[in-house]
Amino acid sequence: MKVPIVENVLKINDEMAAMNRRTLQDACVFTIDVIGAPGCGKTALIEATLAACRDDPTRFGVIVGDLATDRDATRLARQCQHVVQINTGKGCHLDANQVRQAVAQIELDAIDVLFIENVGNLICPVGFDLGQDVKVGVFCVAEGDDKAAKHPYLVQEADLLLLNKIDLLPHVPFDLEKLQADVERLNPGVDLLQVSVSDSGLEKWLPWLRDRIAAAISNRASIAQA
Amino acid sequence: MHELSIAESLIDVARQHLPPAAQPRTITVHAGPLRAIEPDAMEWAWRAATEKTEFASTKLDLVELPWRLHCLTCRRDWDADHMNAACACGSTNARPIGGDELQLMSMDVAEAQTTENLK
Ligand SMILES: Nc1nc2c(ncn2[C@@H]2O[C@H](COP(=O)(O)OP(=O)(O)OP(=O)(O)O)[C@@H](O)[C@H]2O)c(=O)[nH]1
Ligand SMILES: [Mg+2]
Ligand SMILES: [Zn+2]
Ligand SMILES: [Zn+2]
């Protein structure tokens, strides 16, 4: 007997992600899922952002996922009081349940923006909703210019793409126009911002971030008033 | 290895749809190309995840959906083997549509003994 079903395989993750989204939005926390390959500079991006925004009124928290070690959390804790490390063991991506447990360890009233550094992986983190407001995909020059074409899901789903390590451009063969064309084909209109996070080259990223934070805060304030 | 997480989620969702006392024989899943599911890895993950569950002897029928492309030159939509396939009009200027499907479509079950006897 054939039973027709038609149901999302990741339904349970998606339901939990929707709960996280409600929790974070109710607490007026703007949440950014940072996705990129191992070593592309996700932790460095968050570190540099925390340093650059030290005098902003915005208060940050970070959840960081790695297969093993708390090295990234240790790096981030130098600049931020609200850091939670998730060790996924064998898991190559964060899921909504892990994020729910990590969020429970953070004092949400004490933060305005939550970064979630996903496990270094360009593939499956994209398919697992965590309850974030936006997904930021990070590529870097050292990976080569074919990464957008090889990882179309991330490019399609990203609200913003960063190309990091732009300082290395003179040293490696890299066809910037090719990458830009692949991105434009897969996600027309999405911004691909060039950054160099370990070299204080954040001038394109910070205005984007500050705009999005301001928009989220005013949007939520007006919802709270209504 | 996202196949293992997918297999585990699939068990949870399938369980919600399994009629009481029915034996699941085949589970059909449709996966779009963006999901990058590797069939051999998925098969292995399904075997590993279902061990000691009611799905231990259930076959996983993974249907890999083709790329669906939209040609920006002649505006035709068609199914292709890969994302960079050229359109019949000769253009390679096409955009993928969808592709992120990941759905449990149906389950083939052996009915419980009592219903079997009624037939
Ligand atoms: N040249 C250059 N190196 C960079 C830049 N950003 C990061 N790096 C270096 O890249 C290496 C990896 O950076 P991380 O921030 O640890 O990368 P990650 O993405 O967090 O890595 P995982 O958490 O292991 O996936 C470090 O040695 C950084 O110093 C950059 O803009 N330019
Ligand atoms: Mg890191
Ligand atoms: Zn994974
Ligand atoms: Zn055409």
Summarize the structure.
The complex is a heterodimer of chains A (226) and B (119). Chain A has helices at residues 11-26, 42-52, 71-77, 96-103, 147-150, 152-157, 176-186, 205-225; strands at 2-8, 30-36, 60-66, 83-87, 113-117, 134-140, 160-164, 192-194.
Characterization of this structure:
The complex is a heterodimer of chains A (about 230) and B (about 120). Chain A is an alpha/beta fold and about 230 residues long. Chain A has helices at about 10-25, 40-50, 70-75, 95-105, 145-150, 150-155, 175-185, 205-225, and strands spanning about 1-10, 30-35, 60-65, 85, 115, 135-140, 160-165, 190-195. Chain A has a single domain, classed as Rossmann fold (3-Layer(aba) Sandwich). Chain A is built from eight helices and eight strands; from the N terminus they run E-H-E-H-E-H-E-H-E-E-H-H-E-H-E-H. Chain A starts with a strand and ends with a helix. Chain B has about 120 residues and is of the alpha+beta class. Chain B is about 30% helix and about 30% strand. In chain B, strand 1, helix 2 (about 40-50) and strand 2 form a beta-alpha-beta unit. The radius of gyration of chain B is 19 Å and the shape is elongated. At the A-B interface, strand 1, helix 1 and helix 6 of A face helix 1 and strand 6 of B. The structure holds guanosine-5'-triphosphate, magnesium ion and zinc ion (2 copies). One zinc ion (ZN) binds near residues 92, 93 and 124 of chain A.
List key phrases describing it.
heterodimer, A: 226 residues, alpha/beta, Rossmann fold, 7-stranded parallel beta sheet, 8 helices, 8 strands, 20% strand, globular, B: 119 residues, alpha+beta, hypothetical protein PF0899 fold, 3-stranded mixed beta sheet, 3-stranded antiparallel beta sheet, 3 helices, 6 strands, binds guanosine-5'-triphosphate, binds magnesium ion, binds zinc ion
Which outline of chain B best applies?
elongated
CATH class of chain B: Alpha Beta
Lateral arrangement of strands in the main beta sheet of chain B = 2-1-6
Uncertain ranges of chain A? none
Look at the helices and sheets of chain B and give the structural class.
alpha+beta
| Uncertain residue ranges of chain B | none
Number of helices of chain A: 8
- Examine the coordinates and then state which fold CATH places here, giving the name of the CATH topology of chain A: Rossmann fold
What series of H and E elements makes up the topology of chain A?
EHEHEHEHEEHHEHEH
The CATH architecture name of chain A reads: 3-Layer(aba) Sandwich
Helix content of chain B: 25-40%
Number of domains of chain B: 1
The CATH topology of chain B is what?
Answer: hypothetical protein PF0899 fold
Overall pLDDT level of chain B: 92
- Trace the largest sheet of chain A across and list its strands: 4-3-5-2-6-7-8
Q: How many domains would you count in the coordinates of chain A?
A: 1
